Amino acid sequence: MTKMTVSCPDGAFSAYLALPTKTPAPAILVIQEIFGVNRVMRDICDNLAAQGYIACCPDLFWRIEPEVDITDKTEAEWNKAFELFGKFDPDKGTEDLKATLASLRDHPASTGKVGSVGYCLGGKMAFLMAARSDADCNVSYYGVGLDELLGEAGSISKPLLMHMASEDQFVPKDAQVKIREGLKGHPNVTLHVYEGNDHAFAREGGAHYDAQAAAAANARTAAFFKQQLS
């Protein structure tokens, strides 16, 4: 596995890149949590490459602090993660993701089809990619702040798969209701709620990891990508 450099109007940033053994292949843009491009994100990329996809996770915090790579294991790391999250500009981040998506479409190993999948902060960004980019499909795992973005739902023209945790400590119950009601009947959105699960239920090794819920969500995601990107 390797890194690639993505250029944008503001400069350039790095991205972790995992290639499958057989190319050309469709690509998946993996969107980080608040812990940077860490081992969890790199492992997701590697697993997607093993499934036959080009997988790429760009450094969205590069304007604040390049090459952030922390875990969810200590209070100090959580504090740093929330500090970075507070300084992060979602609009700039969306532009960085769109630049990465364009690079993946043009990659010599790519078929030209590109989807995205994001977790936590990345789940929010995957929603924004569905509304603001030409990605072929998008997947959002327990996205945060989506209740404030429902005004953009009308711009979602490609398939969006969403995974929501019913007990998500970062998405209050009233926000969950707004999200479900705001997206109800949307022809391009499929929303699954995982009852009894908390935020980051699919993060292996995390405090709220639930193997059964993670397996269900990941199976749905795998089938979704196979259908949309083949």
TrEMBL record:
<feature type="domain" description="Dienelactone hydrolase">
    <location>
        <begin position="13"/>
        <end position="228"/>
    </location>
</feature>
<dbReference type="GO" id="GO:0008806">
    <property type="term" value="F:carboxymethylenebutenolidase activity"/>
</dbReference>
<dbReference type="InterPro" id="IPR029058">
    <property type="entry name" value="AB_hydrolase_fold"/>
</dbReference>
<protein>
    <submittedName>
        <fullName>Carboxymethylenebutenolidase</fullName>
        <ecNumber>3.1.1.45</ecNumber>
    </submittedName>
</protein>
<keyword id="KW-0378">Hydrolase</keyword>
<dbReference type="Pfam" id="PF01738">
    <property type="entry name" value="DLH"/>
</dbReference>
<dbReference type="InterPro" id="IPR051049">
    <property type="entry name" value="Dienelactone_hydrolase-like"/>
</dbReference>
<dbReference type="InterPro" id="IPR002925">
    <property type="entry name" value="Dienelactn_hydro"/>
</dbReference>
